[in-house]
Amino acid sequence: MTKRGKISLSEEELVHALRHKEKVAAEALYDMYSASLYGVIVRIITDTPTAEDVLQETFVKIWHSFASYSTDKGRLFTWMVNIARNLAIDKIRSKDFKNQNKNQELENNVTFIDEQRNTVYKPELLGIKDLVNTLKPEQKSILELVYFKGYTHVEAADELAIPLGTVKTRLRMGLIELRKYFNES
Amino acid sequence: MIEVEDVKAYIESGILELYVLGDLSPEERLQVQDMASKHPAVKSELGEIEKSMVLYAEENAIEPAEELRHKILNSLVTNLADDRIFSSQPEPVKDNVVQMTAPKQNNFYKYAFAACLALLLASVVVLMNVYSKLQTANTQLIAMNNQNAQYAKTVSFMNDQLGVYRDTTFKIIKLKGMAKHTSSSMLVAFSHSKKKVMIDMADLALPENDQTHQYQLWAIVDKKPVSLGVFDKSSSDTSEMKVMAAVSEPQAFAVTIEPRGGSASPHLDQLVVSNL
């Protein structure tokens, strides 16, 4: 992470710079968030060139529609990750992509996701094993579907054949587990 | 207390997680934002969820390829340049350009038209001037031509006149006054071979005749008078040699005063007379 001397700003500074379309804002934005956003995109789109395209589209969209972001709506990353996720889902559901990847249907759920995740997880990322172990399997799968696959909680309930209320509860419990984990470490 | 219970239930409903995941309708989103602004507990819970999401994403972060950074930043900087063009040069600048060119063009054509008109007027004035000068020159030329012709005529006439005196066939006869008219006299030129009679009007020493009478020249042939024509004596007389009727073998010339137009035979006094 320190190979190039990455630019890092506080969230307030970054928001201010982005509002004024300063060049340093573009660099800081990329250095601070490209890996996190790419991590989300890659879990939705396994094809590397397509995932890279989507990452670019994500930054372009963030840059252009930054006026629509307001700090009242929440944290900058939350806004950005939703853009990245939506673009990635749009791409994977588009006709072109479906035709390209006919044999990669989304239907095959948790096991497929797990396999996929295992292949793209970087071994040098520490704490993953602990984190994975922290979450119960049902919490992990719901988080995967909603957070990384862009399923709505209604779709996830369908997918996993569980009631909506259960989806919400599991999601909440999973996130609470995460909080605990992050607070401890 | 009821409110606190409600807020707790709201937090535990899981709606805040869905909010952070962007999995709510726009109405529900506004509701969550409203709750967060009213209840600090909701706001801090939201903050916690967001924070854990950020950390979770960071845990799962994957560094994209090195060359992607340059490519993406370039696309942003290109767009950045576009954005700057649009934001720092808004519509009014375009309007200015349009407004500037339109009057400029108008002015140019206005001035060009005015210049053309002025040039045309100046040309017309100059042309008129030249035309009037040409007219004057033409009239002068005509007048001079006339004068020239006049002179040529005069010169040739004088030559003729002079020729009469030089011609040896002409005899210059002086007619002398008779009886009461002794002061009168005139010159008659007669060429026997050419049978030509002329009188020298310049040398006419006769009293002026009135409107009802004219002088008549007679030739005496075989003792009978033969009319050779009438002539006038006036103050404005030119110095012509007047050619009279032809006659052959005259013995004498005489001039009488006769009624205007002349008479068949002389019946008034002979004024001047000469014998050949």
Mean pLDDT of chain A: 78
Largest interface: A-B, 53 and 47 residues
**What string gives the helices and strands of chain B in order?**
HHHHHHEEEEEEEE
Q: List the uncertain runs of chain B.
A: 84-95
Kindly report the name of the CATH homologous superfamily of the largest domain in chain A: RNA polymerase sigma factor, region 2, helix turn helix motif
Mean pLDDT across residues of chain B? 80
Q: So, CATH architecture of the largest domain in chain A?
A: Orthogonal Bundle
- The CATH topology of the largest domain in chain A is given as Rna Polymerase Sigma Factor, Chain: A
- Number of distinct beta strands of chain A: 0
- Broad structural category of chain B: alpha+beta
SSE diagram, text form:
The complex is a heterodimer of chains A (185) and B (276).
Chain A: H1 11-19, H2 23-44, H3 48-64, H4 76-93, H5 95-100, H6 110-120, H7 128-134, H8 137-148, H9 153-160, H10 164-184
Helix pairs in contact in A: 1-2, 2-3, 2-4, 3-4, 8-10, 9-10
Chain B: H1 2-12, H2 15-20, H3 26-38, H4 40-59, H5 66-88, H6 91-166, E1 170-177, E2 185-191, E3 196-200, E4 213-221, E5 224-231, E6 241-244, E7 252-259, E8 270-275
Antiparallel strand pairs in B: 1-2, 1-8, 2-3, 3-6, 4-5, 4-7, 7-8
